[in-house]
Fold this sequence. Notes:
Blueprint: H1 5-9, H2 17-30, H3 35-49, H4 51-62
Helix pairs in contact: 2-3, 3-4
Amino acid sequence: xxxxxxxxxxxxxxxxxxxxxxxxxxxxxxxxxxxxxxxxxxxxxxxxxxxxxxxxxxxxxxxxxxxxxxxxxxxxxx
Length: 78
C-alpha cells in the first residue's frame, strides 16, 4: 500500500510549498536516525515540492479505486 505523502509530512493537501518545506525540515531533524522514515519523508517532499509531480500525484490520489469490486457481477432488475 502506498503511503499518503501529505500524511507522511503531516500537512494538508492545500499546503503551500513553504509549509511543505518547513514540515520536511522539522521531520528530517526529528527522524535523522531513522533511515526508513527519512526515505519516506524525502520521497514525499520530492513529489509535493515539484508542481508537475504534485499535480500527477493528486490526480492519482483522488482516482484510486476503493477496492470494492466484486467480480463481474452485474445487477439486473426484474
